[in-house]
Input
Amino acid sequence: MKEWFDGKTIAIVGNAQSLFGKTYGDEIDSHDVVIRINRGIETCFNDRAMISHGKKLDVWVFNLYRTLENFDTTAKTQIPNPYKRLQMNYTPILGTIDSSISQEAQAEIVGMFSPKKVTTGFRILHYITKFAPSSVDVYGFDWKETPTFYIKHKSTTDLSHDYKRERQYCMDTYFRSSKFTLKN
Output
């Protein structure tokens, strides 16, 4: 996986509703590697999202249990076969992230906000820091200031994640680096 990320420009595209009001599509698609999270892959098949989200997809990271069971039926029929065969949690196109991270690193991620779970977006941000990308631009991350685009309401009942604490950690750790930029 090192060859996927080292020396590359990376776009991580989150799923905040607020991203639809932006015009980042061409900018996102200009990156060497575009990572989409959970049902964010649906924007690749939506012409209206082209202006805001772009269409390029190199890595798809998802939570198997929540993503595939709720996937848009139209988008399901358009997913190329390699995507349909993915069966592991947090799986990019060509392999599994969790199987590529040492047990020690997995324990570090899981333990960061225990007893709360870390989000899929946080997992990929943390994972990318283990490599040497030339830059990482992060789009559509607002830690529930706006709803996730495929969930029509702002989730205030999701007690499984600590969005405030996760955001603070990301701002203090990842976005202090000149290589990481939050594009909101």
